[in-house]
């Protein structure tokens, strides 16, 4: 691992950004009351893992894989996801559309794109700084970027809101981009402090690799905890509704026409990992799918 020569300038709200980064990695969501049984993100002794659920329709010959993804992770993680995607007839993916020619998605640096479309200077500043900080963390931990390794192909279909719809949902729920980071915990601040200390170390420092690994473990555990809190706590309901639940409804409406196929179809939904429980609930409760199986993919190695 290498030390970075460039860093994001520290401001009075800097400590919010590590928390916001954790959320952006997975985009937490609103889920139903019994969704705690639907696991989608976990840590083990060796890795931070995301789930892939395979659902089958009780009425047709349609199988659907819900592929929860982290947007920065180990290169091998994206290679394994690509192997799954290769077997699909159609893949539906997230990406907020600005217009017919421009899409805000993981595939054209969404946060920077959103920032360029919004007039509020503070919102632009917040989003740009968040995007820069995400890239900084990725470089520091030698992560790959989803943008570079999972790129749309001919059988990929965008399944998301357009930009105007997204902004209307945020406004109607009185949700700003910074509001997600308001509940900053002492643990989040501790992670930021650890990161700032690590940045100052040379790779030749004794136990450097072990210190970086411990930081990654701490960050992964906090990521899981933060996601669980945002999935289930009542006080985050507005944020969940605005950023996730409403977008999930749009995604399902775009995939839905394929559900009536009388010929065998293999479909996929590629979205942030924490969309998974809501998708599973909707599909099993409203569209007569059932869970055939699920598997875990290693996203971040937690070994030396």
Total helical elements: 10
SSE order, as H and E? HEEEEHEEEHHEHEHHHHEHE
Please estimate the helix content: 40-55%
Report, as a whole number of angstroms, the end-to-end distance. Answer: 11 Å
The total tally of domains equals: 1
The secondary-structure class comes to alpha/beta
Instruction: Identify low-pLDDT runs.
Output: 1-20, 27-34, 103-120
Describe the global form. globular
Q: What radius of gyration results from the CA coordinates?
A: 19 Å
The tally of beta strands, per DSSP, is 11
Mean pLDDT: 78
Q: How much of the polypeptide forms β-strand, as a percent range?
A: 15-25%
Major sheet summary line? 7 strands, mixed
Describe this entry's structure for a reader.
- This protein is an alpha/beta fold and 304 residues long.
- It has one domain (15-301).
- Helix content is 44%, strand content 20%.
- The chain has 10 helices and 11 strands.
- The strands form 3 sheets. Strands 1, 2, 3, 5, 9, 10 and 11 form a 7-stranded mixed beta sheet that branches. A two-stranded antiparallel ribbon has the order 4-8. Strands 6-7 form a two-stranded antiparallel ribbon.
- Helix 1 (15-26) packs across helix 7, helix 1 (15-26) crosses helix 8 (208-232) and helix 3 (110-117) runs antiparallel to helix 4 (121-140).
- The longest helix is centred in the last third of the chain and has 25 residues, at 208-232.
- The termini are close together.
- The model is unreliable at 1-20, 27-34 and 103-120 (pLDDT under 50).
